[in-house]
């Protein structure tokens, strides 16, 4: 997940008095065991997640960690507008190779690149639907080995994918006719583009040159994917309607899930 240098405290409180604490310790051990072993996760009739063994569900995380301290913001940057450094409906972001913060500035039809402390470095994009232009960009990701950008916007259809150099110069377009609406975009440690289609929940893995390498249907364990993050070839799929994050291998094998509607209501991205 991206680090904005926003200071967040995620310390969690526990009630250590009486038998309830012993029960929480037992639940915590069950959770840790579940996280260490792959589990088959599906959707139940209520569109919630279910595991084969209800006694070792990762959902017990919400019972153990039921109270969190409020988030503390260290600083922020950006304000509403169309001027340099201003933003209008930012819809996605990622980190660049120098810890730059890359923002898809949707209603300004551009990509803004900020230093990690929030100073604007440069921005690129002209409003339009022709190749090299941007039309409501939604998602952006960076190739870590060369700093090039991959951007998904609306283009002439519902989704378009374009590659720009690390300086923001248009390079080429990647055909994604097999996708409807791209709601998640990332670059894996292998240098592959990973894009998520929310209409028919599917994850597509594409080479840097634009070749479709493989794909998998994630509708079995995700109701409506709203974003994706990748760490060490493990995929973290944000699931808005199921109020959590589904964690899978890059092959599509589900590992476990995080959260529920009590602790992560309608998550929309990373």
From TrEMBL:
Keyword Repeat part of the UniProt annotation: yes
NHL repeats: 76-117
Keyword presence, Membrane: no
An MF annotation (GO) of this entry: ubiquitin protein ligase activity
Pfam family, one: NHL
Keyword list, A-Z: Repeat
InterPro entries hit by this protein: 6-blade_b-propeller_TolB-like, NHL_repeat, TRIM-NHL_E3_ligases
GO biological process: proteasome-mediated ubiquitin-dependent protein catabolic process; protein polyubiquitination
Source domain of life: Eukaryota
Name under which the protein is recorded: GL20002
Organism: Drosophila persimilis
Gene designation: Dper\GL20002
């Amino acid at each position: 997940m991206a680090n904005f240098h926003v200071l967040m405290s995620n310390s969690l409180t526990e009630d250590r008095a009486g038998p309830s604490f012993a029960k929480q310790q037992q639940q915590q051990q069950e959770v840790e065991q579940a996280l260490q072993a792959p589990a088959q996760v599906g959707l139940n009739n209520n569109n919630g997640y279910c595991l084969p063994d209800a006694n070792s569900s990762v959902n017990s995380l919400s019972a153990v960690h039921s109270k969190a301290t409020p988030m503390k913001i260290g600083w922020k940057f950006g304000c509403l507008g169309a001027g340099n450094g201003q933003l209008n409906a930012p819809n996605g972001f990622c980190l660049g190779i120098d810890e730059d913060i890359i923002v898809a500035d949707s209603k300004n039809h551009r990509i803004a690149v900020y230093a990690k402390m929030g100073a604007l470095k440069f921005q690129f994009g002209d409003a339009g639907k022709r190749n090299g232009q941007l039309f409501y960009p939604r998602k952006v990701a960076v190739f870590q080995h060369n700093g090039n950008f991959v951007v998904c916007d609306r283009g002439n259809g519902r989704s378009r994918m374009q590659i720009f150099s690390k300086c923001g110069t248009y390079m080429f377009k990647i055909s994604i006719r097999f996708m409807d609406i791209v709601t998640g975009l990332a670059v894996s440690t292998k240098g592959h583009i990973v894009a998520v289609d929310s209409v028919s929940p599917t994850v597509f893995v594409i080479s840097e040159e634009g070749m479709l390498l493989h794909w998998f249907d994630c509708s079995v364990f995700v109701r409506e994917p709203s974003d994706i993050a990748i760490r060490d070839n493990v995929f973290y799929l944000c699931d808005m309607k199921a109020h959590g994050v589904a964690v899978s291998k890059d092959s599509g094998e589900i590992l476990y899930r995080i959260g529920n509607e009590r602790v992560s209501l309608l998550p929309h991205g990373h």
